[in-house]
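Why run this: before we spend reagent on co-expression, it is cheaper to look at a predicted model of the complex and decide which construct boundaries make sense. The entries below are exactly what would go into the expression plan.
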Amino acid sequence: MGPTCFWLKIVAIALFGLLNIYLFVISCGVNYQYAMAQEQVRFREEMPTMESWVNSPFGKLKSYLFNVTNGPEFLSGRDARIKLQQIGPIVYKIVGYNDILNRTASSVTYRKHRYRHIEFVPEESVSPDILNKTIVQFNSFLLGAAAKYCQIPFTSMGFNALTLGEQVFMTGSVYYFLWEFTRPALELFGKMLPLATNCGTLYNALKEKEEIYTVNIGTEVGMENFFRIQNLNGELRIQERVKDNPRNLGDSCPINVADTLDNSLYPLFLERNSSLSILATESCRVLPLRYQRDQEHDGMNSYRFTLLQANETAPKCMDSTYGVKLPRGMFDVSKCVINDAPSAFSMPHFYGSSYDWRQHFEGLSPNADEHEPFILLEPNTGIPINEKYRFQSNTPLPDFSSYSRKLTKLSNMIVPGFWYEFDMDHLPAHVLYIMRFNVHWLPHLQPYLMALQLLCALWCVLSLARRCSRSRSYGELYRKLCGPPVVQLEAILNPRPQHEPKLTTELALK
Ligand SMILES: *[C@@H]1O[C@H](CO)[C@@H](O)[C@H](O)[C@H]1NC(C)=O
Ligand SMILES: *[C@@H]1O[C@H](CO)[C@@H](O)[C@H](O)[C@H]1NC(C)=O
Ligand SMILES: *[C@@H]1O[C@H](CO)[C@@H](O)[C@H](O)[C@H]1NC(C)=O
Ligand SMILES: *[C@@H]1O[C@H](CO)[C@@H](O)[C@H](O)[C@H]1NC(C)=O
Ligand SMILES: *[C@@H]1O[C@H](CO)[C@@H](O)[C@H](O)[C@H]1NC(C)=O
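The model came back. Tokens follow.
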């Protein structure tokens, strides 16, 4: 063995030893899981989970319509209630995109394109040719306009005349109602007034809105504030509602965006009572999340939070729609939809609402399993692992007695338009793997890794000692270090100069 080679080995072992001692000392003062969490809140572009966030939200949008199966019978008075038949799911695959515009150590600004990619999924829909099927729908244009102008005195006669040709129920393809629903009267108005003329439900629901978020990142704000919103489009309040009535918007109105979340990432180390609310842009409001229970999903424990609670009273600024006081479990969204059409959101099938729909309709079956919206959050990483984001859009109607007979029959109904469920896809395998490692393995791994570091350091010290003392084996090193007594014992028991360790021990034992 050349001297260069010898010294190289010494240096290599010394460095390895020092590294392990360093790691061990560091590990004594650091929690691995916490260190990883700090990396997560720095939100670096190189993080393996970044791509999944950039291309989010991703999942399936399932829409459901209600086919009216006894329109003529209801209008003629033969049937007292309207029979509804649910049509769906009509499934679209959705992939969004978050475009990072600016980043500092403590904030990131990005533009969210929620619906960048939309594709019909025939095989997961109720039938592959569902878009071409014929259904019967309420004439939402007629009902909306009637409800909206009902408050203005003396409009009814003019209105009745203008809408003479409009039927209460309309027949058309599912595609027509979802994507290109329009009416000749509406197009006529649209030429004179700034009105949107396409009332297709999905056409409007999936239209891009400007959404530029600035959110907290970095270790300074604290993990409990990670990804909380600083502002939306540079504003601290939801503008649609501010424009509606700037005086009426006290702090009780849930439209302050500061410290809410965009439902893509959440603070870390969540507790069941953590204060979380999301910005629901489609309904122009802030929705508080309420912890419901623990739930297992994809092999991970998660906290289940609900978006609306059964029989919840709407905030004061959202509790009526064009003069119609809403029942519990609903809130007004008129200022948030095209043409300020009268509309209110509820859970699908009026689940958790005090509206007595049985008075007016048949065929609904509200239940928590299918109709309660919820989000599952993995508490350590704050990553949503599943969500079912569900809402139903309704048209609340006032007393129509001043209108023509066909409308009078619909007085005081809350007409269900359609409902949708955004169903988040499974997370990509590598993201799940990192989460599982972080949550399940890292906390248990730390003691073992630290023990390993200690062992490696010990081995390096011993190895260095042996090499530097030019001992051929650890036995020899031992004898050199703790030499004299053993050597003496050996000398007495075994006069031969050639020593064999095994023999020595045997003799020593005798
Ligand atoms: C909707 O109801 C109408 C009237 O009852 C019926 O003719 C039609 O087949 C139904 N559509 C679907 C898709 O079931
Ligand atoms: C990014 O944000 C910082 C802090 O808010 C600001 O000073 C800077 O001008 C922004 N950069 C761009 C390119 O907008
Ligand atoms: C639906 O109808 C359109 C024309 O109206 C046709 O081009 C299309 O092939 C039909 N789709 C199915 C699945 O039947
Ligand atoms: C949540 O509960 C814990 C104790 O269980 C308490 O220390 C903490 O202050 C609570 N947090 C909030 C936001 O209420
Ligand atoms: C909500 O209220 C209605 C009537 O007001 C009641 O029938 C229903 O049981 C309530 N639901 C829940 C979950 O409390």
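The radius of gyration is 35 Å. Residues 466 and 474 are 7 Å apart (CA to CA). Bring this page to Monday's planning discussion.
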